What does this fold into?
Amino acid sequence: MAGAILRRFYKSINLTRTGFDIAIVGGGIIGLTLARALRKEHADVAVIDAGAQIPPATNAAAGMLAPSFEGAIACEDALYAFGARSLGMWQEFAADLQDESGFSIDYRADGILGVAFEEAQARRLAMEAEALNARGGAVELLSGNEARRLEPALSEKVAVTLHAKHDAQVDPRKTILALRAALAGNVEQLSAHRVECAVRNNSVYSITLDNGDYVEAVRLVIASGAAAGALIKGLPPPPVYPVKGEAAAFAMPEGDFRRVVRAPGAYLCPKMGGRLVLGATERDGCSDYEVDDAAIAAMVANGAAAVPAIAGYREIERWAGLRPATPDGAPILGHDCRGPDGVFLALGHYRNGILLAPASAAALAGEILGHGPAAEIAAFRPERFAQA
Ligand code: GLY
It folds into this structure.
């Protein structure tokens, strides 16, 4: 393709800049999964990641693959269907990625339990179960005793649970490491480089990095989450804003419980090797990485109401991450026809970045490679905000 020709040309005249078919700005799970999908179609790809300058939201995520629990404000049916589609892709994606990288990513398809302690919460779970099953989900309501047979660590005060049998989880940090390893040698990974701007000239994007270097590419994908901003001359900034989430990890005796438990005000995600991830706050528009002690203490109390043992676990880490949110809670995917040709957006996955990575990558890779607009992302096109 054109990028390969450019690259050979620059090498032949000994210039340090290099040309690619496709450059992806953003090395979180969305950018890397897309790079992998494009590489499988033999595209010549570079991923430009800001490294510690802009930590990817992926590293802050708990890794729930939970279409049954993560709703949206608008686009609800489309988002649910897209989430369910992506959940269905995860098993194969995880197995292939583990083979390609040699790394375990701790994928577990053992369901998620949403718990209720009292009448009003139980009524809400019953309504959610009905709505999910009407959409083709596979959830069931369990009594407290039935749920405790699955997870004996649940409190006696748990009265009802929504059991989403097919929802799953994975370790996002391990997934990023596995993706980087799988792409090594196949995809150029430029780390710790912030993109200053990208300008299109003669059908090629020139992407200027903060150290003065630049990369050229025929097509450009913006997958830089809440940091997307105004990178491209001629393209209105996409409406993506940060929603901060604070979380913490605890050392837990492995085997205390296995499934993700979602309680009012906290979720608990037990990981391989005796690590429990507890999350997460929602702070709209905050773009700092401070962690509030009181917020963590409240989540521990809320989590311990569902699984009392966690009150005795030792904290090993706390952090904050920035979810890339959009005005309607759904991602922004595809070519933005208000901007120049050859630029694609893969942004705004908000609370669902880990879940949606395989489906977003598959749909976008086809479009970027010229296979036409993908029907499954019709509801997530960038132009919907211009029309609003
Ligand atoms: N998906 C969970 C969260 O964003 O906190």
User: Anything to note?
Assistant: Residues 13-17 have pLDDT under 50 and may be disordered.
